[in-house]
Write a structure and sequence with these properties.
This protein has about 210 residues and is mainly alpha-helical. Helices cover about 75% and strands about 0% of the residues. α3 (about 50-60) crosses α7 (about 150-175). The longest helix is centred in the middle third of the chain and has 25 residues, at about 85-110.
């Protein structure tokens, strides 16, 4: 079971979730429109066939279903190894994130970037990015849960890959013209915040168990 200080995990979760809320509020107000449009148009102008093909592959491999399946698979392996609480945490955080970002999209109802800069035709709500939120949630919770049991090399490899993958998935959403920059930033903060919150809850479970269990 995880032995990290739940207070620290909770503080990080609060900061990330507060950042997500702030980003969504500011983005919804239109205050970030200039930055969002500038980034979207600038990336659209710099597209190249090989880079676009790579972005399409990454965005497909990093879609919301794939992130949910990662959590379920990793959670199943942890449960099979006798770490049921950790497995449940890893499996449930991406699923919870899916529910949260879907509800937020419906409430905020922000329009996607215009069709003329979209490589993929996407018309549903834009804020926050589901791809970014799910990738951040699935990989962050996996790193946090497995960190105490990994050697230094394993930690570096897993954390490094997680950061690169989360960043790549989010970037492709902007590059392909299907999300604004603020959508992705809010998605990253939301997913990571929910991951830290889930592990914070997990970290207090041993203290609540009766002695001898």
């Amino acid at each position: 079971m995880i032995t990290r200080a739940p207070r620290l995990l909770a503080v990080v979760a609060f900061v990330l979730l507060a950042a997500a809320v702030a980003l969504m509020a500011v983005a919804s107000s239109g205050a970030l429109a200039e930055q969002d449009v500038g980034t979207a148009v600038g990336l659209a102008d710099e597209r190249r066939p090989a880079a676009t093909t790579t972005a399409l592959v990454v965005t497909e491999l990093g879609n919301t279903a794939a992130s949910a399946l990662l959590g379920l698979a990793a959670g199943g392996v942890l449960a099979w190894r006798g770490r049921r609480a950790e497995g449940l945490c890893v499996a449930s955080v991406p699923l919870l994130t899916s529910v949260v970002f879907t509800v937020l999209k419906r409430i905020l109802d922000r329009a996607r970037p215009p069709e003329e800069i979209q490589v993929l035709a996407v018309a549903n709500e834009s804020l926050p990015s589901g791809h970014a939120a799910m990738a951040a949630a699935a990989w962050t919770v996996l790193v946090l849960v497995t960190w105490p049991r990994l050697a230094a090399c394993g930690r570096a490899l897993l954390a490094g890959f997680a950061v690169l993958w989360i960043g790549a998935v989010g970037f492709t959403r902007i590059y392909l013209g299907v999300h604004w920059l603020s959508d992705v930033l809010a998605g990253w903060a939301l997913g990571a915040g929910l991951a830290f919150a889930g592990v914070a809850v997990l970290s207090v479970l041993p203290a609540r168990r009766p002695a001898g269990t």
